[in-house]
Prior knowledge:
Largest sheet of chain A: 7 strands, mixed
Shape of chain A: elongated
Helix content of chain A: 40-55%
CATH superfamily of the largest domain in chain A: Succinyl-CoA synthetase domains
Protein name (chains A, B): Acetate--CoA ligase [ADP-forming] I
Structural class of chain A: alpha/beta
Largest interface: A-B, 70 and 70 residues
Radius of gyration of chain A: 26 Å
Number of helices of chain A: 17
Oligomer: homodimer
Organism (chains A, B): Candidatus Lokiarchaeum ossiferum
Distance between the termini of chain A: 31 Å
EC number (chains A, B): 6.2.1.13
CATH class of the largest domain in chain A: Alpha Beta
GO molecular function, one term (chains A, B): acetate-CoA ligase (ADP-forming) activity
Number of strands of chain A: 17
InterPro entries (chains A, B): Acyl-CoA_Synth/Transferase, CoA-bd, NAD(P)-bd_dom_sf, Succ_CoA_lig_flav_dom, Succinyl-CoA_synth-like
Amino acid sequence: MTTSSKTFDQLHEDFTALFYPKSIAIIGASKNKLGGSKFLIALQSSGYIEGGGNVYLINPKFDELFGFPVYPDLMDSRIPKPIDLAIIAVSAKFVPTVVKQCNEICRFAVIYTSGFGESGNKNLDTELKNAIASSNTRFIGPNGLGVLNPYSKLAIYPNWCQSKGNISWVAQSGGTMARLYLTLGPMNIGFHNVVSIGNAYDISITDLLTYFQHDSITKTIALYLESIPDGREFMQIAQSITPLKPIILWKGGQSNRGVQATLSHTGGLAGSYNVWKAMCKQSGIMLADHFEFFQDLVKVAALRPNVPQNLNVAILVAGGGIGVEFTDMFEKMGLVIPDFEPQTIEGLRQIFPAVNTSFNNPIDLGEYGYDPRLFAQAFKLVLADRNIGSVVFVREPERFNIISKMLDIDDAGQMTIDSLTKIIQTTDKPVFCNPSPNRNTVDAYETRYNFQLQMIKAKIPVIEIPTNIPKIILQLYNYGKFLESRK
Amino acid sequence: MTTSSKTFDQLHEDFTALFYPKSIAIIGASKNKLGGSKFLIALQSSGYIEGGGNVYLINPKFDELFGFPVYPDLMDSRIPKPIDLAIIAVSAKFVPTVVKQCNEICRFAVIYTSGFGESGNKNLDTELKNAIASSNTRFIGPNGLGVLNPYSKLAIYPNWCQSKGNISWVAQSGGTMARLYLTLGPMNIGFHNVVSIGNAYDISITDLLTYFQHDSITKTIALYLESIPDGREFMQIAQSITPLKPIILWKGGQSNRGVQATLSHTGGLAGSYNVWKAMCKQSGIMLADHFEFFQDLVKVAALRPNVPQNLNVAILVAGGGIGVEFTDMFEKMGLVIPDFEPQTIEGLRQIFPAVNTSFNNPIDLGEYGYDPRLFAQAFKLVLADRNIGSVVFVREPERFNIISKMLDIDDAGQMTIDSLTKIIQTTDKPVFCNPSPNRNTVDAYETRYNFQLQMIKAKIPVIEIPTNIPKIILQLYNYGKFLESRK
């Protein structure tokens, strides 16, 4: 909703103060470390305060909390005005009054408190909406966890990772916001501006998209939405962004009962999923239907959003069972596992013995396929094949140790990563690695985790759930078609 | 293929010697620890030899290997006859001769060597088949990794876990055999008889099923098959087993190209997937279409194969986003998320505050939902609801630490598991837990891993990939319908 009286340019300027606030007021800080004071502890642990950020605690009941002075209200003359960001964490019934107090004092405010329209409290909801409409402050929420930015050390929970990156992320669910942030962040797939937008009574998803469009750090936009007030406006802004920056959307509320569930969650009107699908197709948005797929699609878009020229996929494994599995899975999803060009097969035949191997697509390289030198040659041959649009390969990191011993080389894993890092720079084709976990122990997990960290450095997405891979390829292919139509 | 001249009763008797061999000959043992000698090292590390098992190494080129005497051939008078099990690990061209030598000396033999029909070596393949047909020894393979049994310490790789359990598992792919064994085994979901059956030129899947039917330890049968020689025979035996022991089948080669890929993998005729689907439906086999789903279905069948009375599912979460996600996912797969009975909702209302919660299906218990005492009450109410066939709930083990501190209790995780352990014994309804990982770090993984180990002790399956849950419920429901039709 762009109901504000401010012009876009003013808004655009303003959003920088939201994501890079020089001063933050926490209204409703108390002794309870899980209430408003959670934000103070978060801003301490993130380094915001140490880096020169100013935090003002507001609560008429205290003079001091956790060693910080506490002010009775925002108007207190000791607080320098204007304040860039207020965090409102008072009981729901006091929120409208506090919202009014913010006017002319705070540039932005996050309404952390919930218990309005989404909980059926109609009168209080109307009162809050009226207070917001009459204020010059711009509001995030209510019922939202707030705003994060690893670049400005803006934090909302203590000890959350602060991975700087190119993703800006808006979620209409605090839990979902946290899940993506804490799944990708620790793997060094980082974020710029993150917003748990809640009921979005003032600053809307289109407002944020407009800002992200012009933000030079944001290269990938991830959205979890349950409802939007104006589909047409959303599509217009999305269409102007997707030719330059991929947008990945997960829509909560796809089925009848799912839509019902969103009502008590964020209280908006969800709309038919078919309408959302059509909207995404027309505006080049990549659509994910559940979390695990969504996070993989965001990962791919943030690392290497290359689009395939066709739906033909090469499958490169060492072990015939997985070759059969992936072929079944991909073909059933509408992808094609084509024959290779004759020179590809001939090339493979010159590198590998004929025993326990299979050189047509899906390729089974057998035990020899784990020799990093031979694998690199095979990988190059397959990438060069003109029948192939994307390459999917399996590397089981648990096997590198024994392979190193067998081949008498230092570290087969590192050697594999080094060669892949070089090869990936010579191709535009999408490439995906599946780790095919073959040991369910904590040690084996750590081995796979560290391998994935290295692969991410090389910009090669590791996709653990193989059923997500064909879905990703289809989304990238459709995105490519959209990009072509916009040329 | 029951091409042997032996009667069933003899066969049945014989299979005990295959899975509980008192003596094992390794033909083709050499200095190479990755060849035939791998089996020696495996049988040392498993405790087979220490437990009194006899191993005889065969190779005319050596007198001694790894401190063990080596005999020139099977006929050597120093080797007591008959030998229960021979492992044939010589080059393909020597295999037919060794197969002939086994006759009257070895009860069973595993042909580990590959390079026959599946590699296009037609003449050698015919020679091998003829040698097998003229021998009284019964053979597993060729192109199979062999036979495992944690009860008899029969092992094929050093340091593989030896989890004893109720699953017997036959795979027409060595890699796939290993994946299931090493995924479920470390979680204490254990195995009895495990066979990597390879091309199955002699002992067939139906021979093994016939044995498992009468084996009292086997309660669950898992199969990965790419082809069968006689569908009718397979169906007949399966139909007589499934009323008593669930069979879970993953069929490799479901798509056109997938079927092609199986040809170079195990060389059999795969047949149309629709025929397999119909066969499974008629014989009460639960069908899985890829590995991750297969292993979850086997896990559920081994732990608690309870079937739901209907397709109505209760979803119990703490955090609205996941409730919406699961509702969408389950409904789109054909499940129903029905309203609760009024007394269920009323009961929940008496336990939980109305803020940030939602008491109809999907239930969002909010932050309070992590209090183990309140959760146990909610869980019981939902299980008792007559509209509900299965219950799916989310517990994020990463949250128990902070919850324990918040609630000032010792260990919220343990308390949750203790109460669930008791409640699960009072219900026949299928129950599934999803851990909804919310932190991607090795530490968080370890927390989830240990939680899952505890839940497995309580016989509650933890399903990590949520999209598998509705698929599991559908398979169990169909299995229930089949069981009813057989009453």
